[in-house]
Amino acid sequence: MEMDLKEKLYSYFTEFTAVDTQSDEKSETCPSTAGQLTLARIAEREMKRIGLDKVEVDENGYVYGELPGSAPVSVPVIGFLAHLDTAPDCSGKDVAAQRHRAYKGGDIVINKEMGITLAGDSEGLKESVGHDIITASGGTLLGADNKAGMAIILAAFEYLKNNPQIPHGTLKVAFTPDEEIGRGANKFNLKRFGARYAYTIDGGVEGELEDETFNADSAHITVTGRSYHPGKAKNLMANAARIAADIVASWPENMLPETTEDREGFIMVTDISGGVEKADVSAIVRDHDLAKLKEKEALLEAIVSQMKLKYPNAQIELKFAESYRNMKSVISGHPEVMDKLFAVFKNEGITPIHNPVRGGTDGARLSFMGMPTPNIFTGGNNFHGMYEWVSLNSMEKAAKVVIGLAQEWAK
After folding, report:
1. Taken in order 76, 44, 139, 119, is the CA torsion positive or negative?
2. Which of 179, 206, 210, 212 is catalytic?
3. What are the start and end residues of each CATH 3.40.630.10 domain in the chain?
4. What single string gives the DSSP state of each residue in 124-140?
5. How much of the chain, in percent, has pLDDT values that exceed 70?
């Protein structure tokens, strides 16, 4: 069983990572890139091959499927989700996964010519000695976030399909587009999916499970300046680019992603552009505590108010938009969702790493839509960059967690 499941995971994973599915926040389509639809069709083909029911890729690129229940009694319908896209931060084109068998410890050379070496003290890597480690081959991300999740779900569903003696209720699967740009749940059809509870398979190293996320908003600042000949600009010019830079520089140093950890929130500038007449600043606001999130927004508002006084010849506008909220407030009202997950971890001998995630998942949005959805590990780390890696052995563990949850909910 173990080798078959492991090799099935590897087969799925390498096929999925070969498809470029980087999402694009500037695109107004859904999915935002054509590659995601290509992968959606591949997933659809594999789901039909496995023998799942109600397989569909909808008009927005969301993939749905169902494994009918085998339990003799009625049990809740449970779903599992992963996302199709990879992050825009690093190239996802022509990804060539390479397998480092039976990792012996120490550094892993990803690409000698490019000087890309995965440090042996990377988080989770020392715990993966003896595992098969998968990396890209240089110059690209790997795509374990979240193609490892896709592979884990499909391999687990295929195993259950091939072993009908294992009792489980009706199980749902969905793959969503554009999670990396915050749109994963935007057009998700909750009624079409039909699950009471769900789990995203979108976490990091083995043992991670998450039922608490950041509260998240976006912020956008528009500076409209006033252009004059620089030789005659005194008391007349308002240089929008300089004003925008002044606003960004005024943010406290101790409230940045690079200076915070654990439950400390932050504001991060994600983009700044413009010239003398107009400049734009985009940022994200994050905190596990909603009240503290609002305090950070109030501080940014105060900074902007000061800048309006400092630069009276400019117009400065600040807008916030809600991205997602901490799913802990929803999931805590349904303790059985986590209780069953902890029970499966215990059965599989997995030590839980139960910390608040410094980020978000589709599960945060889905939880507030009415489907409590915590997050489970994939076995990888260093996501969104060239040093990304995933343990194939931990992927196998995650697949067993999916199988175990199917059984646990049928009790």
Report:
1. positive
2. 179
3. 2-212+326-408
4. TTGGGTTSPEEE--SSS
5. 99
Q: How confident is the model at residue 237 (pLDDT cuts 50, 70, 90)?
A: very high
Catalytic site includes residue 179: yes
- In the 8-state DSSP scheme, what is residue 350? P
pTM: 0.88
Q: List where CATH 3.30.70.360 sits in the chain.
A: 215-324
Task: Quote the pLDDT of residue 3.
Answer: 45
Q: How far apart are CA 409 and CA 402, in angstroms?
A: 11
Q: Residues 392, 63, 403, 76: is their CA dihedral positive or negative?
A: positive
Per-residue pLDDT band at 66 (split at 50, 70, 90): very high
Q: What is the mean pLDDT of residues 3-10?
A: 89
Of 292, 268, 290, which Cα lies nearest the Cα of 218? 268
CATH class of the domain whose range is 2-212+326-408: alpha beta
Which one of 44, 46, 66, 85 is the catalytic residue? 85
Annotated active-site residue 85? The verdict is: yes
pLDDT of res. 136: 98
CATH topology of domain 215-324: Alpha-Beta Plaits (3.30.70)
Alpha carbons within 13 angstroms on the beta-carbon side of residue 310 total 15
